[in-house]
Design goal:
Number of domains: 1
Shape: globular
CATH class: Alpha Beta
CATH architecture: 3-Layer(aba) Sandwich
Radius of gyration: 19 Å
Largest sheet: 6 strands, parallel
Helix content: 40-55%
Number of helices: 7
CATH superfamily: Decaprenyl diphosphate synthase-like
Number of strands: 8
Distance between the termini: 10 Å
Structural class: alpha/beta
Strand content: 15-25%
């Protein structure tokens, strides 16, 4: 286990919050706030690649977002279409692997096709992984994992006594993705909003006042530097600068 502050994060997760407020403060339509949010995502992906991170996970569309007005839901889908169509070739060429994680139930056919295309086209890339949580809710993810385990026990493929955290993790939508080292939420809100509840058990968390459309490499580097100054004990103790369980 690394000593305190010895290294930077390899996996950052971001709750991209504040698009609507950014637009409202400027007297602009919410749609324009979401469009500027896509530009912020573009900047952040590039910055993460340049900083040699291995994973970036972003909360793009929550399963609770279906409760928003139909027009706004449609505009959020349109932004995913736009992002994939405009950026996929660049991401593929730059060695970025794209994974879209969440429930596929209820998504329009063309969105499903775009997701499959993005994942297939970038499946062999290894430089950096962009995980997009889309139609995602952590409670839904946990319930689906529990159902999968129950089905395996019922079918005789495993015994209930064999269920442990590792077995559970392999049934999650985010199976195969390392847990985030650092979680950032923009806009000054102090909530997790049903995001990665299983995976962030030992993540460092930072809540920044910056609205997502204004997020830049500067804010990202500030968060990384703050992360480096923290002691990560993972439930252990720090003794004379060394960590022990």
């Amino acid at each position: 286990m690394a000593s305190p502050g010895a290294s930077g994060p390899k996996h950052i997760a971001i709750i991209m919050d504040g698009n609507g407020r950014w637009a409202k403060q400027r007297g602009l339509p919410r749609q324009l706030g979401h469009e500027r949010g896509v530009e912020a995502l573009r900047r952040t992906v590039e910055a993460c690649r340049n900083l040699d991170l291995e994973h970036l996970t972003v909360f793009s569309f929550s399963s609770e977002n279906w409760k928003r007005p139909a027009e706004e839901v449609s505009s959020l889908f349109a932004l995913l279409r736009l992002y994939v169509r405009q950026d996929l070739n660049t991401l593929a060429k730059d060695g970025v692997r794209v994974r879209v994680l969440g429930s596929r139930h209820g998504l329009p056919d063309d969105i499903l096709s775009l997701i499959e295309m993005a994942e297939e086209k970038t499946s062999h890339n290894t430089r950096f992984q962009l995980n997009i949580a889309f139609n995602y809710g952590a409670r839904d993810e946990i319930v689906e994992a529990a159902k999968a385990l129950a089905n395996d026990v019922e079918a005789g493929r495993m015994n209930a006594a064999d269920i442990d955290s590792d077995a559970f993790a392999t049934r999650l939508w985010f199976s195969g993705v390392p847990d985030p080292d650092l979680l950032i939420r923009t806009s000054g809100e102090f909530r997790l909003s049903n995001f990665l509840l299983w995976q962030i058990a030992y993540s460092e968390m930072m809540f920044v006042d910056c609205l997502w459309p204004d997020f830049s490499e500067t804010e990202l580097i500030d968060a990384i530097n703050a992360y480096k100054s923290r002691e990560r004990r993972f439930g252990g103790l720090t003794v004379d600068g060394l960590q022990s369980e």
